[in-house]
Amino acid sequence: MDGWNGKFLRVNLSKGKAAAENYAESMARNYVGGRGFAVKILWDELEWGTDPLSPDNKLVFAAGPLTGFALPSSGKLVVAAKSPLTGGYGDGNIGTQAAVQMRKAGYDATIVEGKAEKPTVLLVDDDAVEFINGQDLWGLNSFETEKKLKESYGPTAGVLCIGQGGENRVRFANIVSQEGRAGGRPGMGAVMGSKNLKAVVFMGSAELRAAYPKEMRELGAEAYREILTKPSYAFWKRQGTMMTIEWSQENGVLPTYNYREGVFDKADAIGGFAMEKVRVSQRGCPQCNMTCGNVVKDSQRKESELDYENVTMLGSNIGLGNLKQVAALNRIADEFGLDTISLGNVLGFAMEASEKGLIKEKVPWGQFKATKALIEDIAFKRGLGYLLAGGVRYVAEKIGRGADRWAMHVKGLEISAYDCHTTPAMALAYSTSSIGAHHKDAWVISWEVKTGRESYSTAKVDKVIELQRIRGGLFESFTVCRLPWIEVGFELEWYPKLLYAATGIEMNWSSLNMVADRIFNLTRAFWVREYGKAWNRAMDIPPARWFDEPVTKGALKGSKLDRAKYDALLNNYYVKRGWDERGIPTKVTFEKLGLREVARKLDKHVKLTA
After folding, report:
1. What is the pLDDT of residues 201-239, one digit of tens each?
2. What is the DSSP letter of 116?
3. 508-537 residue pLDDT tens
4. Is the full-model pTM beyond 0.85?
5. CATH topology for 240-417?
6. How far, in Å, are 74, 533, 534, 572 from residue 607 at the CA level?
7. If you classify domain 420-489+508-610 with CATH, what class do you get?
8. Which of 257, 303, 342, 575 stands 20 to 30 A from 176 (CA)?
9. Phi and psi of 90, rounded to 5°?
């Protein structure tokens, strides 16, 4: 196959064995790569009810057919497993040299199963695979770990590793690369830790094979030049995603004090313009010419790479308005390998629980030293940190007394950094995302603010589905970054052309949407299978806070979601998706997508609608 390598690497840590295996061309055509490969592997190979932290879970690193070629922002990798945080399908993408090196080593995905007897580093050097004693790395943070491994294997080696959060199986631990690139919010780092896998190192020497190499080189070069011509490119280079803080504040959607409000009194102090004044450098993923990582010196005089999500969740959401202190918390989280979005939610929840007297510990809003200490306790699961390491759904269940009403999650995954008191389409996008409450699959909020946030219209349902197909389908299976398209207007029409040059396969938008829907419905089937009879439409409902507690500040004071209208919006979404009233795809829908066998197996767990 051109574009694809046509091989997976299967690694069994329990046996200390690894082998390459070919996969069928139909796998590539039907699922393309990245998330598509990952969910197909997990659906086929995991037994129903597998404990996410047991050796039976599988950790998948998957790339796509565009990953690693010389084209914009193609240095991406999907990491996936059954999530210990949500109990459903979990994944995340990460910009890393490991993506490029895995592909150059000859593999489109690496499947890790079993559990090593002792801490281990997996070294993949082209077709040679070694299991290296990682005892001396266990206990080190992610930055220290990568530094030592690059000293051994060279600066171009692709390293994926965990910090103490993953070692201690914090349920929102992630996987870290390149001192600030992180992925796998739903606990992929905890899965890695449960396998005693401290790090994976990829080293490859082969050139990727394109169907039309001359056209691929020309298209890639032209695409890089095209991005530089976009009107918004210059400002993007100045601020990256940090510009979103001012936008969110202006539009009343900046998460503040555990999503009570959509505006923050100190937003200017943590925004993009404040960042520009203290920035010392920028970083980006491999193959990227619009680097988004803005590096500042934090309050501890260390470098910290900032973006919108981590500054918001460790800033306004916990009431901290000092950018250098926010940067220090972000650096600590990256070192420990803790997802900053979930961490900011957990901290905000703990602060509100303390304020309400539901926990005995005093956890004040916006206090840097106390928060820093609590993050360390979470990473090492000490004291209150032991409880918080389970995530907000777990904590709310433990403390009870109505705490679930302001536990800001969907399906167990903490909500990323947009308040939805006033944005029903974004609330729907969060609630129906493939992994739980994450903006990655359908960042509809900008469109919604422009077109009118008050309505609960069919147009909003259509837009959410359109974006889920593009973002969760095309970008997550091609496994390239979506930011050139979203942030500077790099046209979507480039991607089918790049796919054709790489693979020789021509796919129009109808075909691409079919692939996206196949992947999306298979992830939904995975969720339903794992929850079984406990699954119901409540899984697609956002937190009660957005319905019951209106915002009290800003131009949108008094606003909240309408429960009845949201319910109708969700019904409309289900109809458009071909799902029944429980939010489960019908047999007809599975049939149309070529998933008849999936329907047959799922029907054993929950009776499907015809």
Report:
1. 999 999 999 999 999 999 999 999 999 999 999 999 999
2. -
3. 999 999 999 999 999 999 999 999 999 999
4. yes
5. 1.10.569
6. 41, 9, 13, 22
7. mainly alpha
8. 257
9. -130, 135
